[in-house]
Amino acid sequence: MPLPTEFSDLEPYADWALATEPERYAKRLASTMPDMQQFYDAAFARLEDAITYCDKFDLDDLPDDARSLMHLMQSLVMVSFPIEVWKQPRVPDSGAAWATITKEPVI
Prior knowledge:
Helix content is 50%, strand content 0%. By secondary structure, the chain is mainly α. It has one domain (5-85).
């Protein structure tokens, strides 16, 4: 799904605009740290603009491009700890632990 034209600079990262937490988590685990760093740097620089843009709409009536932007920023949250704290895609010292979300947050 395309992003709003005002965010065309983020189009190279449109594959991060994933609708569910399990999809975002799987993408994080499948990504390299350099790839996540590039995405993080580009998306973080536009975070405030994205929030301002999405806030113009009612959450229940987001246009498709705004919804894609929101999902992209949710992926930014997903990579923030690996980039800022852990320096690796997985939670440190978690071994083979795995948690499965059975219900997505209401959006």
